[in-house]
Every structure is written in structure tokens, then in C-alpha cells.
Amino acid sequence: MPGTTLEQFSYDNKIVKYFGVATIAWGLVGMLVGVIAATQLFLPEANLGNPYTTFGRIRPLHTNAVIFAFVGNAIFAGIYYSMPRLLKAPMWSKALSWVNFWGWQLIILLAAITLPLGITTSKEYAELEWPIDILIALVWVAFGANMIGTLIKRREKHMYVAIWFYLASFVTVAVLHIFNSLALPVSFLKSYSAYAGVQDALVQWWYGHNAVAFFLTTPFLGLMYYYLPKAANRPVYSYKLSIIHFWSLIFLYIWAGPHHLLYTALPEWAQVLGVVFSVMLIAPSWGGMVNGLLTLRGAWDKVRVDPVLKFMVVAVTAYGMSTFEGPMLSLKNVNAIAHYTDWIVAHVHIGGLGWNGFFTFAMLYWLWPRMWKTNLYSTKLATTHFWMGTIGIIFYALPMYVAALTQSLMWKEFSEAGRLAYPNFLETVIQIVPMYMLRAFGGLLYLSGAFLMVYNMVKTAQQGKFVAEEADEAPALKPSVSHEGEFWHRAWERKPVFFTIMATVAILIGGAVEIIPTLLVKSNVPTISSVQPYTPLELQGRDLYISHGCVGCHSQMIRPFRSETERYGEYSKAGEFVYDRPFLWGSKRTGPDLHRVGGKYPDSWHYYHMVDPESMSPGSLMPPYPWLSTNIMDHSDLPAKIRTMQKLGVPYPDGYDAQANADLMLQAEQIVANLKASGVEVLPESEIVALIAYLQRLGTDIKKTTASNP
């Protein structure tokens, strides 16, 4: 406008560059660990014969590296570039930007150190121990404060749709992380969950499902609403559709967590709520996909020649596929087939490799030439990367679907005599080995494409000149005044703090309705009088089981299906888990369920099975754990563990912490005597003794009585 004074300012590209480089570096590490883990499933030797590189330890390392290091850094890079430009203002605080960067890299480094050492809470996507959890909360708050500060100092009156998603992601991840991570510390690197059994399972999957929603989905939808129109040079297809998409998505998503726990000991009403809201989710999810793809109207000719748009189209399509499959998997009849199989692995990776991975690649290919003021070094290499990645996803996912159907059909098959057709779990494992090989090849292809991208990025940077501070100008924001007859959402967009509060209310409703009754109403978790707290040795063995990541391959939840009760024994009851902190129901059966394994085999069987699995289970793909028989377990922290459990309500007698070590040795000596009678000599302090004690306890309480006292 004539006479308007323009204010001069600049955008900080340096922080974007740093987050971009971190995205690429950690992405390569996370994908490489993933390929190693995939190889370990058909080649036990790839576990490398030490405690630190076994599948149980590196699987959470892979998931954390890909989700929080690769995708997390990509989110920050995308937001720190787009948000200032959308608001016509630099980020509020450069200091907070760098606290965000270096704090996040420190968190990733601490995860990379602690997880292979077995320092873990074992909660899916939340394995890090309490000091790191506190650091995550502090760094996340620094990121959020920087966003909100920028919003307050903005020069643009309205908040563009991408920023709605950024804000909702910030507040929801903060709420999820804090509530799920509540725990009582035993020591500097050990804690016990504030929740137990059924309650812990519900809170964990309220977090776990919504970590996927508000870390892997909503921030990327925000990025889609900025980068896809930019790359296509087209406006977003529909503003009103984006409003419906946003509010319905954040409200509905938060309810869907219980669909991870269908047919388990979770109360039926919570399972039903999870199913209903999961099915409803398909509408807003596909609304977002449609809005993204229709933004490309009139630009499809560019898709043939522009690798950035190629990646984006497949990314948005993968998002659509995943968000169709998710509601379908939450239907109880489909879940009965798919749960605990490789179908879930395929589903997660369509989203991870296709939606998150491909959109990150597209964004980086778009950003690099602009920050270095040059052209992409090689469109041909980027297109090659696209096809390698696409074929890699196909080689990854299709074999997993075949493996899943094979697993489910074989597990549930009965012979004409009415017995299980494949009673030995290993029969199924051996059948799907070729599928695991193809999956690893697909992962290797995807990783190879990412290495091509690194070369392309380096060459692009070398031929350009990096612009650390990008100058811009805009008029100052005028004081907000009432706009008669203004569309209600337009009014909300002028009020970022109010908007953030409304988004917070939307996400809190579902969580509160599901979690509060489960924590406060006792009838949701009927107790069983015969279920007693773990003995000191069993508690130590359980912690060792958790440390080795055994829950990554073995579930402890027998569902009420004939095929499962015939194979494993009596189905699992809610009251059996009241002392389980954390719960260990598992998400995948690479090996058989263990909930009724107690007393099924002699102590010597467990000893030989851990030291050399093939000696007890010919053809087994489980790695050997020979160090368990020689490693001496330090029990000095046992009194502190007992005291912590007492504070959490576990009914150990007063002063039992002073007696615990003596009781531990009595039970250990009994197991040592049993082993000696079978020709095996071990010390009572060895790790294998504690692990055997825990395994022999599993599921034995229910055999005494099934009377419940609601």
C-alpha cells in the first residue's frame, strides 16, 4: 500500500541447514541399523554374539533413530524454514533455536548410548529412561516457546494452515510425553512406571498411537500444506477442507489408541471406543490426502519431470494408504488375523518409508538449491533415488503381507482331528524366512537411494553459495480489530494463544474419557487373590528380560481364541498384571507367547535354550545368549527397587528391603541345585538364574484360582 513503512528483517537459514544435515546423517544411521535388524531375523549370526548388538537391543535403537532423529530433525528443519516465511518474522529467539538443535542431538546421542546398553523402560517409542525424558520435555518446551514467541511477533495477520498443524503437534506431544513418562526413579538410570498392567497398557498405547499421530503425521501434514503448494506453484485446493481436516483429525485421533489392544485384558468399553474412533478417522485422513493431491491440479505435467513432486505424490499416496489400512486393522475381525503378525510391520513401514521418508527427501531436495542459490546438481540422480526408494518400499512391504497371512493362517489352522495343524511355533517361522530376506533387500535398496541423495546434496552445495541470512521486508502488523461478519475460523487465526488453547482442549477430551475411568474405577481391573508380587529374584529376572528387549519378539498376552488357548494355555486376565511395571504384552510374535511358560519346562531347558537355542528348538532363529551363564548380576540395587515398588503400592511387607537379598539367594540356590541335578553348574549370582526364575513364574498364579474380587 502507498505510504506503508516496510520493516527490514532476515530469515535464519543456518539453523535449517544444521537440522537438514542432522536429518540426513541420522537417517542413514537409523536406516542402516534397520537393515541390520532385518537381517538378524533370518541370520542369527548378524546379532554379532554380544549383548549390545542383539535384535532386542538394536530394534528400539532403530525405531528411535528413525522416528526422533531422522523424522524429528526433518520436522524442525521444515518448521524453522517455513514458519518465519509464513509469519513474515524471524524466529523469536536464535538462542532457543540452537538450544533446540544441540539439545535434540544430545538426546539422540544419549539414546544411541543407553539403548544398546539395555538401559530402557521397554515402552514402545518411549524407551528412554527418566533423566533423558526430562531433557526431552525441556528441549520440546524450548521449541514450543520459540514458535509461540514468533507467532506473537508476527507481521502476518492470519495463521496459515501449516501453522495450525505445527501448534497442535507441539501441545499434544508435550501432553503425551509427560503423562506416559510418569515414573518413580530407583536410581539415576532405572525407574518403574507410575502405571501397572492394564492401566500401563492403555496409557502406553494412548501415547504410542498418538506419537504416530502427532509426531509422524500432523507435523508432516503441516509441512505438506507449505512445501507441496510451493513445489507445484499452486494454491492449496480447499481452505474449508483444511479446516475440517484439521479439527476433526486432532479430535478423533486421540481416542484411537485402544485399537492396539483388541482382544486383550483391556476393558471392553475402551476397546469399543478405540474401534469406533479409528473407523471415523478415515474421513479426516483422506480429506487431507485429497486436499494434497488436488492441490496438484494443473501441475501433473510437472510430476513427470520434477523429482520433488514425484516424491511428494508417492508420500501423500502412502499417507492415504496407511490411513485406510489403520482403520481397517482396527476392525476386530481384521485385527484377529493381523495382530502380532508382520502385517503391522508392513503397515508401519508404508507410513514410515513412504509418507515420512519420501516427504523428507522431497523437502530436502527442494530446500538445498534455495538455500545455496543454485540448481539441484542432478535431477537424474534424484529420479534414480525416487525409483530405488519406491522399489525398496515394494520389496519391503509385499513380502511382509505374505508373511503375515502365512503366520495367521498357520497359527489358526486345525487338523481334522481337532488339534493344531502346526503345534510347533517354529514351523511358521521357517516358512517365512524367504519373506524376511526379501524385506531386508528392500530396506537395503531404500538405504542405497538415501546414499545417492547425500552425494547429490553435497554436489549441490559445492556448486552454490550458502545464504545464512536471507533478507526480507514486510509492513508491521496492525493492532487487531473486530471484523464484523468475519468467518469464525478467520477470527481464531488472528488469536494464536486462543487457537492453541482450543487445540489443546480438542486433544484432551478423548484421552481423559478413556484414561481417567481406567485409573480410578476399580472394576476395570478385577483383582485375583492368588496373584502375588514378584519375588526379589523374579523381579531382577524381569528387569533383565526388559533390558535385553525380549518383548520385541515375545508377547505375554494370550487372547481368548481357541487357536491361542490350545497353543499356549488359559487366556490372560486383567488381574494377572497388577504388579507389572511396565506391562509386557508385546506387539509382535517373532517367537511364541510366553505368558504361560512358567513350569512348562525344567530349569535346565531354559538354561540350554538361552545358551544355545537350537539345542532345544532345532531350526530356531533366536540368537544365543551365552553371556547370561557367566555374567554376574549386581543385586545391590534390589533394596531400592523394593522400596520404590512399595511407594507405588506393591504390598511387600514393611522393612522387606532389608530381607530381600537373603530371600533372593534362597531362591537362587534352589535353581542352582535344580540345574546341578541336570549336569549344569552356574553361580547363584549369574544372570541366567534370575532370568530362569522370572520365566518359571510367568502365568503360574492363575493355575491356583481364577476367583476374582472386583
Question: Would you give an account of this structure?
Answer:
By secondary structure, the protein is mainly α. It has 26 helices and six strands. The strands form three sheets. Strands 1-4 form a two-stranded antiparallel sheet. Strands 2-3 form a two-stranded antiparallel ribbon. The chain has a two-stranded antiparallel sheet with strand order 5-6. Helix 5 (161-180) packs antiparallel against helix 7 and helix 8 packs parallel to helix 19. The longest helix is centred in the middle third of the chain and has 34 residues, at 379-412. It is globular. The model is unreliable at 704-710 (pLDDT under 50). Its cofactor is Cu(2+); heme b. The chain crosses the membrane at residues 18-43, 63-83, 95-118, 130-152, 164-186, 206-227, 239-257, 269-296, 308-324, 344-366, 386-409, 429-455, 497-520. Residues 14-460 form the Cytochrome oxidase subunit I profile domain. InterPro entries: Cyt_c-like_dom, Cyt_c-like_dom_sf, Cyt_c_oxase-like_su1_dom, Cyt_c_oxase-like_su1_sf, Cyt_C_Oxase_1, Cyt_c_Oxase_su1_BS, Cyt_c_oxidase_cbb3_su1, Cyt_c_oxidase_monohaem-su/FixO.
What integer value in Å does the Rg equal?
27 Å
Strand count, sense and barrel status of the largest sheet are: 2 strands, antiparallel
Strand content: under 5%
Number of strands: 6
Structural class: mainly alpha
Shape: globular
* Distance between the ends: 72 Å
Low-confidence stretches: 704-710
User: Percent helix among the residues?
Assistant: 55-70%
Q: How large is the count of helical segments?
A: 26
Q: Averaging pLDDT over every residue, what do you get?
A: 94
With strands numbered from the N-terminus, the spatial order across the biggest sheet is: 1-4
Oligomer category: single chain
Domain Cytochrome oxidase subunit I profile: 14-460
Domain Cytochrome c: 536-699
Organism: Shivajiella indica
Cofactor: Cu(2+); heme b
